[in-house]
Protein 1
Amino acid sequence: MSQLTEIPEVIAKYLLQIEAVALSPKEPFTWTSGIKSPIYCDNRLTMSYPEIRDYIAESFAAVIREQYPDVEVIAGTATAGIPHAAWVAQKLNLPMAYIRDKAKGHGKQNQIEGLISANQKVVVIEDLISTGGSSLKAALAVKEAGGLPLAVLAIFSYQLDQAVTAFSEAGIPLQSLSNYGALMDVALELGKIEAEDIESLKAWRVDPTSFGV
């Protein structure tokens, strides 16, 4: 297992290798919100690569062992965080639960599946942090259920200020194994982008609504 400091670059390389993440500053992608974005991310692809998904799970586990050793439950966000939470929970020999984006409309109308008891310390596993809205909602659902969300950990973050601010105001730590900055560095090193693209890519992170305008 690599040192924690090596994780962002290693995961960035993996994500670029399997095209789970792509940078395209000259021909930006369009999000469902209409925002033009130079980055595309689909971390669900990592499930199909045993070596990569195991490295991700062990990286999550290493961060948790070092920074959140008193965690009692690993909870995944539905749906993309669920498999990663299961692999992490298995490595740490801990209970696992998952959190829906909203309560079911039938049966017991659960939003959380699995067991989170009052005052249990929970780490939430997510695949991607963009604006942070859905991830924060999941952490707050843990709180509403009586649990104590220690942190939200994600595979990758766009490092948008909106997400950082939202989590800071909620008082819940937010961390990612890899991030937009690390991805730019690795993509440049691998020739996926050119040096002239760096400034526009950095500008998008500061103001995502202005890209391609």
Protein 2
Amino acid sequence: MPDERTPVRPPFDAELAALLEGIREMLLPPSVETLPASREATANGVPGTPAADLTADGAVTVEEREVPGPPGEPDVTVVILRPVNAAGPAAGLYHIHGGGMITGGRRTGVELLVPYVAEGNAVVVSVEYRLAPEHPDPAPVEDCYAGLAWTAKHAAELGIDPKRLIVIGGSAGGGLAAGTALLARDRGFPQLSHQVLICPMLDDRMETHSSQMLDGEGTWDRTANLFGWTALLGERRGGPDVSPYAAPARAEDLAGLPRTYLDVGSVEVFRDEVLDYATRLSQAGVMVDLHMWGGGFHGFDVIGAHTAVARASRATRDEFIRRAIER
């Protein structure tokens, strides 16, 4: 249970709270010792569930390809999902997986985007970036940018309309998506139409109320968050020498970024940094769609997909993505 130093938190949604006890029993607290098992469990999707059929019963082609990585660094692997029956160039969804900067792979979470491909409205490219702590910053975000740049340069070959290129990620992937969008803006390529940041991991400083309010509760508490950021940044975490591409909450100038969708649960460590980032984006002239879901813990929309609040959150995000990918 939280100790007396833990800031007060809102209650969990009643339906979600009923799931938490069983979920926490399955979680491996992140550590150097548990990383191999955690990585094996999350490489292809949600732990304890069968690997998703990315072909959607034959409506989607699945291709894995090695593409150029950052200058002087190894190639990166991407998985490419394309509609079998495409009616001309489609929107490009560039996907960056979550996993606290330390776990996950190119197929983690990508099944949520398959319906847009199966309907012929999108092409998905999902990137395999190098993981911390073996590969600390800037390796992960530079891998993500390299994959995005390759996608944009090969848009015609992939069947992507370059005017509808969207970066999307959840959790650590949301933070990396935000950092990749900043790199694309600052390097002048490519032009993104939207960024979709799902409960993103944005701020290594861990100074907000919400970053401290979960201790042994939820699915990603302050101890796990400290481990993830320290794996990425080492002794630089929380100090003055952290790039905004690694921790986008540190970016001083947010002007010129694409239209942004942000969502977050009210009972997760990332809540306050997401709310602040949304406010600062809006103040910088960026069009922002922000949704905070009452009682939601980190990842509630996937882990508790059957609950009312999860259904509402997924429907809202789906509606935004469908508008974003329209011709």
Protein 3
Amino acid sequence: MDEPVYATREDVMRALDVKESARNRREIDSALAAASRSVDSLCHRTFYPVLATKYFDWPAPQYGTAWRVWLDDSELASLNSISSGGTTISTSDVLLEPNRTGPPYSRLELNIGSDASFGGGPTYQRDIQVDGVWAGCALVEAALGDTVGAIDDTQTTVTVDGATSAEVGVGSLLRLGSERLIVIGRTQASTGQTGTLGGGKSDVALTVADGTEYAVDEVLLLDAERIRIDDIAGNVLAVERAYDGTVLAAHTSAPIYAPRTLTVTRGALGTTTASHNSGTTVNRWVPPGLVHQLAKAEAITILTQERSGWFLKASTTGNSAAKVSADALQTLRDQTYTEHGRKARHRAV
């Protein structure tokens, strides 16, 4: 998975209520990749953050406004440094615009009350060098928990403490310090607690040592049975038994596992791999809400249409349920474009 997706494999599996298999994983990942790039195409921008240095022409010869640089499709979420003609310009002398609605920022302006200026290189071509995080939206992150154990700069697995598996999935984009990582797989890790459950379908109350270590929608493993947490009351978890096609069974003081060991792509999106101490905070990038919902809806549409041989799409006019679904999807597309689509100046906001 080279580019981040805007929803996770687990989001789609929960929506379709399908159990995990190698075939399902492959199909869902492919659909999510196509759906996310479809959202990019619809909105004429990419939303995930990329750390990079980009070059722009000194604007005077082209635009006649020597203190303004239009970024066009290279929208900026945050600025690290800027130079012109090899001379560093203080970021305090740079105005990121539009300041009332950004990020993302579609232009840079020098503070005309300062002494800063563009130019100075041998030509105006690629005279301005801008280093920063580029994204078509504001950077929003949520703290997942802390790393369990130290991580060197080559390790490809990260174990996170706390109730993280309900919030992170395959396709999630994480950040440790200044390094970004893409989740490409999950495996079971011990939660350090045990549980006892009867063998009946109605035995749905699992008492644990510390209920704060779990979250609603988290899927746990006791022996060979998966259970899903539907509610939490103190240290009692209300669970759905025999989840994801597993077999109902009795459990006595069974170790409780959760998919909290993450297989990751290191140094993603322009960042550099680094070592991280145990207890480092793991942050998850949160895409805009409509972008997330549309990517999930597009992926589900691809999967359901593919499994029906694309029959529903071909017969929409004669199938009222399919037409309602198509209309709802188009409404979501329209809402997403209205909120996040680039509409002016080479489709820059």
